[in-house]
Specification:
alpha/beta, six-stranded mixed beta sheet, five-stranded mixed beta sheet, 8 helices, 13 strands, globular, disordered C terminus
Length: 296
Amino acid sequence: MASEANTGIATRSNNTHSKRLNDKENSKTIPPLLLPPCDPYREHKFQTSSRVSAVRPAGTGWRINRERRKPADQPQRCQAYNSAMSTKIGLISDLHATPAPAQEALTRLAEAGADRILCAGDIAGYGDELDRTIELLTAHGCEAICGNHELWYQEASRNASGDPLSRFLGDLPAVINTTIAGRSLYMVHASPPQSCLDGIKLLDENGNIIPEQRQEWSERLAGFGHDVLIVGHTHQVFSERLGDTLVINPGSTKFNHSCMILSVPELECTVIPLSGKPVIRAWNWGMETITPPERR
């Protein structure tokens, strides 16, 4: 694992969020990592006042204890309101027909309060339980796009009439382009506009940012016009601002042991480790004894 200074990942205290997760995890679960906010236009951080407390009783909205409140304490109510309006988006990618880590990711994202779950492609490939993996995505209402392994699976199955898995994969869109909580999000498997193979690779084998790669992709994404770009494909885990766009890769649930929560409009990313293992920031074939399969 690379140092926090090099990787751009910084752990940060978030007692409320961590408690919701840790109460339901066993002792082997590794706590999530909170990536720093990357939005230069985000609201100011207000100081918490001991004279004003924001309370949210079960079944009610936010209630402010107004006793002894002074005008200087008013921003605390705004902070509570902004927190209540935040939308959490679960992010997964590169499941590769392996349901166990996918199931854990979907469960933990739900426990973290994800309002929507997005999958950046490569549901198929490498593993041999594609049907079960698709069932999990469908059961959790996950919104997915097509990756290169979906295209290869369809090529190999084009003569198999009536294959329900091929039909499901064939119906997946190439991109998802949407707006959530005032933020424009664009999701594609490798890179925009619709590439499934030209992946955004920012990290070296130790998980450190490669300055030349960051510069190249900053230039290539100039004028992209979206607040957030979500990708997969490269089996790397990062959340980096390139130009005016926050580029996120949640990593592979199978290989990187990771998924993410994105909070909008704040643009804060939390990395959630899976399978009781540390997150591998940059996974490559030399790190595991596995033979890359033929295209299928």
